[in-house]
Amino acid sequence: MIPNLQNDFRNLPIGIFDSGVGGLTVYRALHEYLPDEHFVYLGDTARVPYGTKSLATVERYAIENSRFLASHGIKMLVVACNTASALALPAIRAAVNLDVAGVIGPGARAAVKATKEKRIGVIATEATVSSGAYAQAIAKSDENVSVIERACPLFVSLAEEGWADSIEARSIAEKYLKDISAANVDTLVLGCTHYPILKRVIQETVGQNVRLIDSGEATAEEVAALLKEQNLSRESFSQSANVRQLCDDLDHFYVTDAATRFARVAERFLGSSPKVLEAVEVWGQDELRKS
Amino acid sequence: MIPNLQNDFRNLPIGIFDSGVGGLTVYRALHEYLPDEHFVYLGDTARVPYGTKSLATVERYAIENSRFLASHGIKMLVVACNTASALALPAIRAAVNLDVAGVIGPGARAAVKATKEKRIGVIATEATVSSGAYAQAIAKSDENVSVIERACPLFVSLAEEGWADSIEARSIAEKYLKDISAANVDTLVLGCTHYPILKRVIQETVGQNVRLIDSGEATAEEVAALLKEQNLSRESFSQSANVRQLCDDLDHFYVTDAATRFARVAERFLGSSPKVLEAVEVWGQDELRKS
Predict the structure, then answer these.
(1) Which CATH number fits domain B3-102+218-279: 3.40.50.300, 3.40.50.1860, 3.40.50.2300, 3.40.30.10?
(2) Test mutation, A52, A167, A268, chain B, max B CBs within 10 A
(3) So what's the ipTM on this one?
(4) Which of A33, A249, B159, B262 is a Cys-bridge partner for A224, taking CB atoms 3.0 to 4.6 Å apart?
């Protein structure tokens, strides 16, 4: 490869897609591990949530999102959505000619590394739990680990309502996590992008001895290592000496619907909302609708 | 009209669409008021929920659903989804050549009829509340009524989880309904199809003196009167002497995704699940995918 072409490629942003606003927790982790990188984020807010939908539908949505980001010039694609990672990674890899990282593999590997008792809990959407993707990925790393899984759909609404620290969140967490606590796991995977918003309540419910694994953070760590290994890190320019803020104008955000609501929830999740935010249609690969 | 053609038309089913499973509460009410009628129900489970989405998107989805049902031969269309009724009725009426009933008008009229103190509360999705559709419809009936509205997004997940009578539901209801209770309303509109599932908890929270209006029930009452008035009721056949069961094989159910999950939640909402249930694609007006 001609050197300056390679530099051009290196300097492309990293693409991230999620079913909606939850993937911002993965964006935050990537931003922290890779302060020199630029990001393009797509939230499929017109069709969120994916967690109650079928394999065929999640695959179709995931392919459309991936092609949209690929057509915008990215050097790598991170599938921030656990459900899409669990159900659609092979379909996405077949659809785009890019390195694709999902969040399930990194989350599973980090959990296997963390568990001493070889008992791991996983909380995720209905679709992710039904897919068995975490259990399979954990077994691939260590087949002697036992896994207990539970879907926690109300956590998503609690996070988006800004009720993460409410007494209701505590009570619901106790209900959802009862069987997992009884199973004496020493490690718990937060297998949905919304769940890190409820980290404090979840930690208090399962007790301080249980290690929480944020799949988004585990993914950011692996992506950082991969970029370094493949010599694909963005060049450090002089301005990189300044610490970049989350959601500054170098990171571009797209949503498929309701940009105002996205900005409001982003503010709640990240403490800041995107400077560059645009509503697009991904189903025709055209940007017909802008907000 | 030639008499037997008119009879053919009268004997067509009534179409109902909703963003998902919530509209089953409207189906139940219609079934109760119109035991001789047959129904075709479409739940847009591939794109549920509508309540957090924009006007343009809700309109597009609603038109696709309406055209799908119209092409299946119905004598009338009931838009069970409050959000679609609030945002998309004009677009739906322009798209199909049929009588179209939404749930907002009937709910508003029933509330105005019920209120003595001229103070009405409305609980609904974010999109319905933002649209101001209930406040406008109430003002149209009686401009001296004051209206207080509140979005209650967690009620949907609570209903679908089967936690309608839980202590968590009570605590969340108290939080959501605090301002409405403080406003001393004497009538409260359940402006989302999921909310009747939480009727007991909502009634206990606002107190027995507040009259709850189920927009679905109000709609069923108006639709029954309309059919009678227009002489469009189905002919009573001998077998109609037997009371029809909910979800028997005369009522057909379509979903755009995840039929198994729909059947499970239907069982929770109605005590029975559809005998005839099929997954379809409505975005191309083709039935490409069946389950």
Answers:
(1) 3.40.50.1860
(2) A52
(3) 0.90
(4) A33
